[in-house]
Specification:
Elements: H1 6-15, E1 23-24, H2 25-32, H3 37-45, E2 58-59, H4 72-81, E3 86-87, E4 90-91, H5 94-97
Parallel strand pairs: 1-2
Antiparallel strand pairs: 3-4
Length: 102
């Protein structure tokens, strides 16, 4: 009963990402000890608490913003409101904002 599900572990990791920082689906998967970053994307697409679990701060490894439960435009708006610079739906200088989970 005390076991925490992979999904809940994923959400706990995402909750650690501070405002103005981002991480990647791959980074989350590696921190969870799995190879499936698509599984991470699936978990985030079903995020029950997007304010507490800021899934908008998870992007693709190439800097593309990726999807979001409330739409890509809303994700871009949220990231920009946190000071993250983008061009054509892509994070500029990904490493500047990158938050390592491991």
């Amino acid at each position: 009963m005390g076991d925490i599900s992979l999904r809940d572990r994923c959400y706990k990791l995402i909750a650690r990402i501070p405002r103005g920082r981002i991480t990647t689906y791959k980074e989350v998967a590696e921190a969870l000890g799995i190879k499936g970053y698509r599984l991470v994307g699936m978990f985030l697409s079903r995020n029950p608490r997007p304010v507490e679990i800021p899934c908008h701060r998870v992007v693709k490894s190439n800097g593309d913003v990726g999807g979001y439960i409330f739409g890509v435009e809303k994700k871009i708006e949220l990231l920009r409101s946190e000071g993250i610079v983008m061009k054509n739906r892509k994070i500029e200088n990904l490493q500047r904002y990158f938050f390592r989970l491991k």
